[in-house]
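Table S2 (text version). Query chain:
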Amino acid sequence: MNVFRILGDISHLLAIIILLVKIWKSKSCAGISGKSQILFALVFTTRYLDLFNTFISIYNTVMKVIFLLCAYITVYMIYGKFRKTSDSENDSFRLEFLLVPVTGLSFLENHSFTALEILWTFSIYLESVAILPQLFMISKTGEAETITTHYLFFLGLYRALYIANWIWRYYTENFYDQIAVVSGVVQTIFYCDFFYLYVTKGFEHSKLKEKKNHMSLSISNWLETIKSTAQASAAVAKEVI
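Corresponding structure-token output:
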């Protein structure tokens, strides 16, 4: 295991902890997309089914269990304990626009046509777009709390570090996973505009309002592309059926 992967895992875990601490301390999940958290829980569930039949290392097993627990605790807090504080009106992204094309693609493009492999591939594709409901929510409201921006920053950092991890593994182990790499690059691209604003301009007064026009335009363009693709996929599926 190399340092880029370890740092990536730490950044990922830190992002989740930041989100959980924010919800718990404020007793509110305002500004947080529950739909994105549902998608992340689905990502971890379908990816870590090998917990029951494959042992790689203690580190690997512990991290998988932690991510699963944190994902479901987050979903519980948003839709259970603090559901009255959730912003369902602005958390309105239609998940079928992501689930339909991701499901279809996981059947068409995978390493082997087995149940576990298809579910693993599904998790990789889904993770690349799971943050879109959160970005859509920010673009819709035009604001985000500072703590939420930190959460997004560390998620983006996790993906960037994993790209470095893949480069390292390619040169040191001659290992290359096209599905994981391409999906990871796509996911990182979604964070690029956010990274630019976070690093170069900051988020004064814990709000994104002064930058919302620039960010909203970029996110909206991405979302329209995703929606168009999903609608086309659904239309093709109906014709086949």
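Notes on Table S2: Residues 203-208, 210-216 have pLDDT under 50 and may be disordered. The CA atoms of residues 26 and 216 lie 26 Å apart.
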